[in-house]
């Protein structure tokens, strides 16, 4: 009975989505309903996390079809902590959405898409079946298509098309690759795939199939050189949608890479994982170059997604326990801070009426709350202690140095500086400066934006200052990823 | 100690409330309590029989990060400087900053800085040290940008932050390497393992990374460029952060780690080499400044270089002299900054070309300035502390260690000359500073304000500092064994006997001092004559230009690079993505011998299948060439229906039916949606584009085919399908296995497949209904 | 025969991608449709072709084709149908709104956002 815990984070938002779709026009009800449901979902997930931490991984065999024949849902520490992070971001977005969306956008099923996105993301984290992962990918992508076109503006439609096309292509590649893998190992259950790939030591075509799978995920994760679709399509929708995308979508991609390349394809690391380090380094470099290249505040944040993913990939590339812990820690940290930053610049752009940095000055004089939150967010992003980014970065760099990968560590340090520069430019040019007598501050609206962002930043600070409460669990995840047989044994009950 | 360190930060929380009454009580009075209390708390440690104290508080034990405070002679000296100068500066600021300013901001930043700086000098854990280190950079950034409506302030703030954070990050890299090699995060424990570190392969990296941190923070050449621009901060800040404390954090770091590094020749070459270069360059450039604070900034750079040089020597005498000068520099430079602030406050300008003859109007400030500058110049007057430290410097430069490498020997031979050369210019700018401001031509009509002596409160802090100059000068023995010897011991690692007495006699160093004064006087008098050489040396400008250039290039070239590939063209994106996949996967295929060819287990080929396949292939290729939209859509239909025929042939009846229905609807949809759109046009594209497209699509198609054939030919395991066929009837209750799989065994897939369809429906509904009518909405 | 179907699927991918690299929206969408056909054919090929009866249980028969790939294809067909329909409507709306169906003119520039 208790195994049903694993399905709750998927079912609750799904039901909420369906209910929300019944009365789209009753906005007041829907808003409160959404907020309440998200809070409930957070509590349930937190409970699940607690349970998993106490009693170990929860495996649910859907429809009681035993693994590896049916679909399994695997709530281990990694997946459930990511689901919890997702839901925390969801809460912040649920409170932010009414402030930034137009009434029309809300009426056209924003909340339904929103819940379905959460469903898809949570499902992707929890599932233990490769084809089912594809299905959840489609759920979250389809919800994201719904969200990105919401509003139907010219630019939105234009960028959405590119977004949909590239994701469609990678989805098709995904199913094909699953089929290839099925042909070789005769199963789609991830634990069993891992077991069987291990038995033959990843010989023959398997590495190539692994690479194809990597590129499928890398496209979604926006790694170099596959991220081109990301920056512009992430800034066209409403800020709350951008925040959801920036925080969740790419992270599902990188999560899948973590899962697959610590569980299944771990026998040719001298090729695959060395390649990852290269890709990580180039993602860092080109990501910060992108972030420095523009004066559009939303675009600056969007580009900053890419180096973050690069950081996470370093941990997988160096392939040691410290690196894995670092990746997981950084992943959780980055999900939250990206959401916070997108919400922040969204608020700034909303209040300023433009996202062109050249036209924004002296904002801190009118909106000190937003200003100081942004200031702190910059340091969180750049990994300055005592905030969450620092712990993640410290672990990743340590992991890299332990393997003697000096070059990537130096690139990591250098790009931290440039990341800081890219966001500090916003602070110095946009928030500092002379008061503009023409601006009539809209403090009432600004106040509405403060709470959700503050909530997210609170978690960032907590993760950093209170690292002792979280790190041991994350360290155990690193250890767990280092020993994939634990996962196989738990799922296949051997 | 924990409370002492965090006291300022805690107080900072209340400052915004306390500043509500700033009209009645200047907020500074509240702030003053913090440094005073800390000073009193720590001053009791002073004494001959001082012993080190370690206090440990747990923070993140599982990462070996703990707030471990370690108080030895070195940190005690710094703590007293931070709190002592902090108290004086705060007191001074009460008169300097008017209550109409945003006092709460100023004092919150200042208090944060105090906590950060105390943390830096007391932390024994490298990562906690780094945390406080970055906090000093951040608070310095905020203080420099205090008047952020000024463009120069913003510029200076960003510059200082970029350079010091750059150094901080590289220092972090060094710390991580150190902690990996020694398996500890405590500095004291690292010092015990100095031989392990020295023999490590990464020693070069560690040395370079840690020293980068120190050099950037202490404004060593060529990173000194941030310090002059940091002078945009209010003068109390310049006196405190940018001369007495924060810039000495780099010195502190070098001193802290010198027990580890000092064995290496490279430590001497880097630290003394860069130090002496900074000393010469700083004093040389100070002479050309016209802003009082500019002169002081370059003078600070040069003095920091001097301390750095001495630390690099690594001899007992040099280390003692370095510690001594840290103390001295704080006294005379602090007082000089305050005087500069007073001059600025009372006359409205800091431009030395407009100033002159102020002594008659401001006799007290003038007298104080004379003490400060003469001490700074090292004029051989036995009651000035600067004279002693300079003499110690010369003395130690004549008694260096023996080095093995030639470069180090070359440097050690050159250093005495460079030291004298730099000191001559120190003398010149010191004289220039004081004579240009307080003596010389009176030109009061050029001043924005009518000058008069500063209020007495403002003078108290500099007076105390100047008293310090004289007391240290007359009675150095008071400080020798009580504090300086302990500090030197902490750096050297063994007890250091105190050296400084009231008068040393006619030693070689004394003649060097005399030479400095002699040449100095000549150059000071003839300054106008030779100042034109600065025109040939772009100096300050060129390094600043380099910084500006790098920053501008970062933006411009990154924009250029990004725009070359991020041009919004879907084709470009796809080409790059596909190329990457094709190249990497073929490489993987080749490297791992993945290709497999095995015809033994294939299904037989029959004519109808071949025909269907041929038809589908032809149709697929035809889609490329047709220029009629209706035709294209219908041809696409052929492929789809062909596929469903293949499903029939390959015993997949459910698929065939589904495909048939879906294909029909899709074709209808295609026709519907594209009815109104323009017809397909002739494809006009260059040969290069066309061949690229062909190449990539062929490459990808071949890749997929090759992988598919190989995958099919390496069936290594039985599939799990056997289980489905066996159990479908008994457990699933159905004979159509595919259906049972769909609704039962993999029911979750199907459920969410329906969800996907549902979302698509809603999204389409939204797309069609929610139109952005211009003006409406 | 598997080799032939693999090649056929490869051809579908090739032509699909070639169309995807074109400028006109309609061609691009036709490309995606071809790619999904190719993908489904690949999945089908990966189960063994014709190694038995259709997977509908009958008395006395024990040799059936692999049912799992078929189930996967079915799911995938339905999903790609959903995506294709959305894409079509989106393409229609985007080209109407922007006044062109040429992707080259749908690039956008810095000042748009």
From TrEMBL, chain B:
Report the InterPro entries cross-referenced here.
CPA3_Na-H_Antiporter_A (IPR050616), MrpA/MnhA1/PhaAB (IPR005663), MrpA_C/MbhD (IPR025383), MrpA_C/MbhE (IPR046806), ND/Mrp_TM (IPR001750), Proton_antipo_N (IPR001516)
Membrane-protein topology: Multi-pass membrane protein
What are the annotated GO cellular component locations?
A: plasma membrane
GO MF term list: antiporter activity
Ranges for domain NADH:quinone oxidoreductase/Mrp antiporter transmembrane: 123-408
Q: Which residues form the signal peptide?
A: none
Residue ranges that the Swiss-Prot or TrEMBL entry lists as coiled coil: none
Bilayer-crossing regions: 6-21, 28-47, 67-94, 106-122, 128-149, 161-182, 202-227, 266-287, 355-379, 414-435, 456-479, 502-525, 573-596, 602-625, 632-650, 656-677, 689-711, 750-768
The listed locations are: Cell membrane; Membrane
Q: The MrpA C-terminal/MbhD domain covers which part of the protein?
A: 615-678
One Pfam family of this protein, by short name? Proton_antipo_M
This chain's protein is named: Na+/H+ antiporter subunit A
From TrEMBL, chain C:
Quote the cellular component terms of the Gene Ontology held in the record: plasma membrane
**Coiled-coil intervals in this record?**
none
Where located? Answer: Cell membrane
Record bears the keyword Transcription regulation: no
This protein's membrane topology, according to the annotation, is: Multi-pass membrane protein
- Membrane-spanning ranges: 6-21, 28-47, 67-92
InterPro entries under this entry? CPA3_antiporter_subunitC (IPR050601), NUOK/Mnh_C1-like (IPR039428)
Task: Kindly report the protein's main subcellular placement as a broad class.
Answer: membrane
Task: Name the UniProt key words of this record, in alphabetical order.
Answer: Cell membrane, Membrane, Transmembrane, Transmembrane helix
Report any Pfam family annotated for this entry.
Oxidored_q2
Give the family this protein belongs to, as stated in its UniProt record.
Belongs to the CPA3 antiporters (TC 2.A.63) subunit C family.
Identify this protein by name.
Answer: Na(+)/H(+) antiporter subunit C
